[in-house]
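re: ur question from earlier - yeah i can do the single chain one, its not a big deal. heres the input i used so u can compare w yours
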Amino acid sequence: EEYLNLPGLVPNRGGWDQWSKKDSRLHAPETESVCYLFSFMKGWKGKIPFVSIGISDDQSAFLIKLIQSSGIKEKPYQEKWFWSKMTKLGNGIPFTYQLNFHPELILCGLAQEKDFSRFIDLKPQLFQKGIFKTRIKNKGIAIKELSSFLSLYPRLRENMKCGVLLD
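and the output i got, formated as tokens:
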């Protein structure tokens, strides 16, 4: 229940950030609308990374060169080309990964189009007496003011094997 007292935050530093993407459906026409799902992972102690991603030296050099040569105003490459190149440079493997722990995923709230007008501008600040800190500008709303994830998938609870749904 403590999670419901936290803010639901959506990065809002400029036109490239997540808040501005609420007006366009990336997977149209398969999706009907844009939603933000607010969740937390419980259990990470912060000493080791949650996930480790491995790439070869050639892949690393490729990424560095790609980042240095791309402009922020345009899409620098096609996704299919990128993954083909990464796979070739990785001898058939685009990357490796390892989950270093398996956290409990807590699904807290769902923001739909009807909720977007209630989000407010938030500057970097501390929440919950300093336990939670933001470093960027966000749009935010109290999670307890949002619909439960179950409102989107009402039968999820009966088929869930593990995890927690707050509603």
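The mean pLDDT is 85. not sure if urs matches, ping me
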